[in-house]
Amino acid sequence: MISLTPVQSLLACCLVLVVGRVLTTRIGFLARYSIPDPIVGGLLFAVLAYLLSTWGGVSVSLETSIKPTLLLLFFGCIGLTANLKLLAKGGPRLIAFLLALIPFLVLQNAVGLGMAWLLDMHPLMGLLGGTITLVGGHGTGAAYATRFADFNNIQDVMALAMTAATMGLVLGGVVGGPVAEWIMRRHKLSGSLDHAAGAGSLAPDLNEAQEPATAGSFIVSMTAAFVCLVVGGALAALVEDAPVSLPNFLWCLATGVLIRNAGPLVGIRLDDRATEIIGTIALSLFLGMTMMTLDLSSVARLAGPLALMLAVQTLFCALYAAWVVFRMLKRDYEAAIMSAAFCGFALGATATAIANMQALTRRHGPAPEAFIVVPVTGAFLVDIMNVIVLTSLISLPFVGGM
Q1: What is the DSSP string of 286-346?
Q2: Backbone angles phi, psi at 60, to 5 degrees
Q3: E strands along 48-90, which residues?
Q4: Which residues pair with 3 in a beta bridge?
Q5: Burial letters for 71-108: b for 16+ Cβ neighbours within 10 Å, e otherwise?
Q6: Is the pTM of this model over 0.85?
Q7: Which of 331, 34, 349, 13 is nearest to 184 (CA)?
Q8: What residue spans of 188-325 are helical by DSSP H?
Q9: Distance from the Cα of residue 103 to its chain's centroid
Q10: How large is the C-alpha radius of gyration of the chain?
Q11: Which end of the chain has fewer beta carbons closer than 10 Å to its terminal beta carbon, N or C?
Q12: What share of the chain in percent tops pLDDT 90?
């Protein structure tokens, strides 16, 4: 057995991220569907480690005790970039988008629970095939998978979470465009190509040139992120014996939201770019280590049930976007673009949603409201609503009873 020290494990993870970055920039399929670097590099490492163990009789052991801290750091940074003032920019369209999203979160989990029942799986596996991974992505999926493994002793849960989140990225990118094209053909909608040059950009006031982030801004953001970890951990310990158990990362996220929005009142101002980089690094390292230690034999066992579950979820998402989201968003061209974005982050991630919008607006013309509403919703609002819905469902006796 090859046992790596903590420093060697971090080095191996960084090398995996570099390899993943090279592959995602040079292989068109990976770039087109926004597959994360740590997923690609980590999966490659897992395959090589599996072959080395199976054919060479040598296993590789990583020191991964830092993983929980990295995950909490990521969610703290999400909270620290949650600028609530941006909510006013979306206006009525943002409210309508949120009103369409809330019941979808419940229904997507209901579909997952129903599929888990049909496939004779634990109900929590249905939630992992629902909004935990499809709306929440790899970060939320890993957080809940760790929790389910520790408290519910569910086997292969991390493999299901990472595989579902990765496949969701691909499906979200594949489905969004066709859904919007069908809507536009059916309702005879079109955009204006007169301003197509700005089709893929945010509103002008959100795109202004800024001074580069400095070492000082990184230190301030890092300090705030660690405050989120300490305060969030303390709050989680205070309510540990409460009737309804809340995940630790929720307290870190909530602490970050408070600092970000109340801080300016006392002179504390953070550089969102520095905070986002810190959060991205933390999540990349966490996902890299998670993928590097995947048990591929477990993934193979879950392939059949997972594929069926994701196929049903994809069909449901496409129908909901076309018949509910579009109708609630004024039934115009902007609504069609946002329906494609809805498929993107309802199955994958905010990056997938924006990629869907960029592809459509390059062809049909700009959709300025969409490029405000979708990033604001996907940045933090959907995560907050998702945690509320999941916490309520997990507390039910027939689901998790936690």
Answers
A1: HHHHHHHT--HHHHHHHHHHHHHHHHHHHHHHHHHIIIIIHHHTTTSHHHHHHHHHHHHHH
A2: -115, 130
A3: 60-61
A4: 61
A5: bbbbbbbbbbbbeeebeeebeebbebbbebbeebbebb
A6: no
A7: 331
A8: 215-238, 248-262, 272-292, 296-320
A9: 19
A10: 21
A11: N
A12: 27
Average pLDDT, the chain: 83
- Look at the block and give the residue holding tokens 């919703």: 377
d(CA 292, CA 30): 18
Q: Is the pLDDT of residue 268 over 80?
A: yes
Token pair for residue 366?
A: 């700009």
Distance CA 383, CA 81 (A): 13
Query: Do the Cβ atoms of 172 and 348 come closer than 8 Å?
Result: yes
CA angle 173, 178, 183 (to 5 degrees): 130
Q: Count other Cβ atoms within 10 Å, centred on residue 3.
A: 11
Q: 167 exposed, middle or buried (CB, 10 Å; 0-12, 13-18, 19+)?
A: buried
Question: What 3-state DSSP class applies to 61?
Answer: strand
**Entry field: residues in the chain:** 402
Report d(CA 310, CA 307) in Å as an integer. 5
